[in-house]
Design a protein that fits this description.
CATH superfamily of one domain: Glycogen Phosphorylase B
Mean pLDDT: 92
CATH architecture of one domain: 3-Layer(aba) Sandwich
Shape: extended
GO molecular function, one term: starch binding
Strand content: 15-25%
Largest sheet: 6 strands, mixed
InterPro entries: CBM25 (IPR005085), Glyco_trans_1 (IPR001296), Ig-like_fold (IPR013783)
Pfam families: CBM53, Glycos_transf_1
Number of strands: 22
Main location: plastid
Structural class: alpha/beta
Number of helices: 12
Helix content: 25-40%
Low-confidence stretches: 222-227
Protein name: starch synthase
CATH class of one domain: Alpha Beta
Distance between the termini: 106 Å
Length: about 500
């Protein structure tokens, strides 16, 4: 029998508890006002062991070991699932890129079916109006297999006939042997030759699937420049340097091939430098988390504003006068801007230090210039930015815009070199993108002055403010485009085989 001023409470003590801890309050946790917590030390009482001490600690050790084992198993299982998904995404991307590569040639040549099967018949469709055979009264097909090395030798020349769909294409058919891994062909104006379309010396080659033979490995050797094709890093850059008196005599050797990025290094699904891993399926969630983390880390205002990222070396080649103007223009449009980069020239570095001091003083919540090299931060900027600005004066290829798209950030670029070859303006380049079997993926501008960069930047920021649903879909679109080495590798393989001839 307890006195009336004694309050009794019964609690269930866990089997393996060692100490019971408590405080008193004048109400439930959500409504309590007064507490008795033993002068902030709380109340504690030992719980007697119900098993011998040695047995208890042995059981504790066993429980801890099992817990660690289970945590490791779950971690390894999560890693295995993630790696499987990564592998599946890579395979799907590679297959999708190959199909787009084949379709991108459709204005000149394609096959039905698009995927050539060993042991079946295939129809080759060719449009001479886009080649050197334009206007020729006849076109002849000359083909073989396995890069012209098939045991049966070349196929007999075949005169092509008009396609059934009423287009400009001509057609012919061929039987694909079971031991074929590649179909090879060229076109000529006559049965015995004349003018040839051999794809500028590369010949036409299309992969064959399902055969019993595999293509042997290609062993690449160093070939003298005077004798070999020269691969430039973009088609447009090859044209831009064509006027050089040293280069012009060798123009026939030039083959512009855009570089690719390493999808293992630049992979938002497996990136340890961003808070939430993401693919195109959850790009909005991933980029939102990255933007919040970027704003927090750099001391920017945590708000939903368009964020323009600039990741660059600060040199005249990179258009530093356009970068400065774009920073101020972004702030005028109520956006945020983050610049990461440094200058090898101390005068330019000091100039940007002064600009950083000015901006951090007047627009500290919306502008941050980090004037150093910081690769982990670059990953976070690529993921957290809405736009990545690349206003280069000249750019042989450019990887920044490719990495930006890998992370679902929309590129804003000047039309030069590889920037022009990889970024297709959403308002002006629909047909040019379609020719590459791509969707428009960014904003671009001509010229090297303030009105030029304003034209692209204003359209981009307005799209963010006025068409968020469309802009969000654009982020997904650019992220699904493949700018790895999958497609350049196909072109390089053809170039290497041509160099061996």
């Amino acid at each position: 029998m307890c006195p009336r001023n004694i309050i009794v409470s019964t609690v269930i003590v866990p089997v393996r508890a060692l100490v019971i801890d408590w405080v008193f309050a004048d109400g439930p946790p959500e409504g309590a006002f007064l507490y008795d917590n033993n002068s902030r030390q709380d109340f504690h009482a030992l719980v007697p062991l119900t098993t011998p001490e040695e047995v208890y600690w042995s059981e504790e050790e066993d429980l801890m070991f099992r817990k660690l084992q289970e945590e490791r198993r779950l971690k390894e299982e999560a890693m295995r699932v993630k790696m499987e998904k990564t592998g599946r995404l890579k395979a799907e991307t590679k297959e999708r890129t190959l199909k787009k590569f084949l379709l991108s040639q459709k204005d000149v040549v394609y096959t039905e079916p698009l995927e050539i099967q060993a042991g079946s018949s295939v129809t080759v469709l060719y449009n001479p109006s886009n080649t050197v055979l334009k206007g020729k009264p006849e076109v002849w097909f000359r083909g073989s297999f396995n890069r012209w090395t098939h045991r049966l030798g070349p196929l007999p020349p075949q005169k092509m006939e008009a396609a059934d769909d009423g287009s400009s294409h001509l057609k012919t058919s061929a039987k694909v042997p079971l031991d074929a891994y590649m179909m090879d062909f060229v076109f000529s104006e006559k049965e015995d030759g004349g003018v040839f379309d051999n794809k500028d010396g590369l010949d036409y080659h299309l992969p064959v699937v399902g055969g019993i033979a595999k293509e042997p490995p290609l062993h690449i050797v160093h070939i003298a420049v005077e004798m070999a094709p020269i691969a430039k890093v973009s088609r447009t850059y090859a044209k831009e340097v064509a006027g050089n008196s040293v280069i012009s005599p060798h123009l026939y050797k030039f083959h512009g091939i855009v570089n690719g990025i390493d999808p293992d290094i630049w992979d938002p699904y497996n990136d340890n430098f961003i808070p939430v891993p993401y693919t195109s399926e959850n790009v909005l969630e991933g980029k939102r988390a990255a933007k919040e983390e970027l704003q927090k880390r750099l001391g920017l205002k945590s708000s939903d504003l368009p964020l323009v990222g600039i990741i660059t070396r600060l040199t005249h080649q990179k258009g530093i006068h356009l970068i400065k103007h774009a920073i101020w223009r972004t702030l005028e449009r109520n956006g945020q801007v983050v610049l990461l980069g440094s200058a090898p020239d101390p005068r330019i570095q000091n100039d940007f230090v002064n600009l950083a001091n000015q901006l951090h003083s007047t627009h500290g919540d919306r502008a941050r210039l980090v004037l150093t090299y910081d690769e982990p931060l670059s990953h976070l900027i690529y993921a957290g930015a809405d736009f990545i600005l690349v206003p280069s004066i000249f750019e042989p290829c450019g990887l920044t815009q490719l990495i930006a798209m890998r992370y679902g950030s929309v590129p804003i670029v000047r039309k030069t070199g590889g920037l022009y070859d990889t970024v297709f303006d959403v308002d002006h380049d629909k047909e040019r993108a379609q020719a590459q079997v791509l969707e428009p993926n960014g904003f671009s501008f001509d010229g090297a002055d303030a009105p030029g960069v304003d034209y692209a930047l204003n359209r981009a920021i307005s799209a963010w403010y006025d068409g968020r649903e469309w802009f969000n879909s654009l982020c997904k679109t650019v992220m699904e485009q493949d700018w790895s080495w999958n497609r350049p590798a196909l072109e390089y393989i053809e170039l290497y085989h041509s160099a061996r001839k």
